[in-house]
Amino acid sequence: MLPFTALRARKPHLVAALCAQTRMSSSSLPVAAVCQMTSTPDKEANFSAASRLVERAKEGGACMVFLPEGLDYIGSSRDQTLQLSENLDGDIISRYTHLARKLDMWLSLGGFHERGPDWETDRRIYNSHIIINGQGELVSVYRKAHLFDVELTSKGVSLKESAFTVPGPRLVPPVQTPIGKVGLGVCYDLRFPEMSSALQRHGAEILTYPSAFTVATGAAHWEVLLRARAIETQCFVLAAAQVGAHHAKRASFGHALAVDPWGEVLGDCGGSDPGLALVQIDPRRLRDVRRDMPVQRHRRDQRFYCSLD
Structure pTM? Predict the structure, then answer.
């Protein structure tokens, strides 16, 4: 059998089983769970599905769980998407803080529909990536900055996120967690390497891109973009994902992925079913890659890269 760090498993239960074995033989390394789910407009069913994944991750030895964009719901219309949204102090986040506290687990909620700052007048929302610690406290909130406004008529993709979403105003500093220092992004942010470079310069060891990639864009770009972000920043990349049909109008690509700082895929949840991948985060791997190829030390100052402006 290949060593786990070189395995590209396509079955989530296989990834989980291999990780459990690895954990028993090398329990000092922290384990992250990268999850894949199929959200619908049914918030209760979505919370139940996510809770089961978190509980499975706990049983497998994970100390931090990564859930995808749209973990609370994926609406079938603009009106439904807005109507189902909540504030950070609403019921859904309260239930996740309770879950984190009960299981003593850190949670990355990769895309929560948060009512915006002027909700009462403009009915617009943020797409918010929330980190909750093992005591059930919100420790960071990043609001997605790059909104997915795309018309790919030849591929049947037409989405305009800005029609109901407010772009986030700023990046947030990487968060110190039990698996390392985590930099926060959401889905379409993946296509902007300036963002991942900024997070790496501010200490990120792990980049996260929880997503609901379309089938067309996922098949073309998902893995290559995630591996590129890992290689150029020399970070681990963890990307929880939505998979399958959410309702009659929308489906997602899946393939929740974990990538190491050399660009090797550590876990892949496949393109058909919900599940999770358990992966060890080995800080020695990150240190070795950055030592052997000191890209950041070779980087020129910002004036050089702006010299054509």
Answer: 0.91
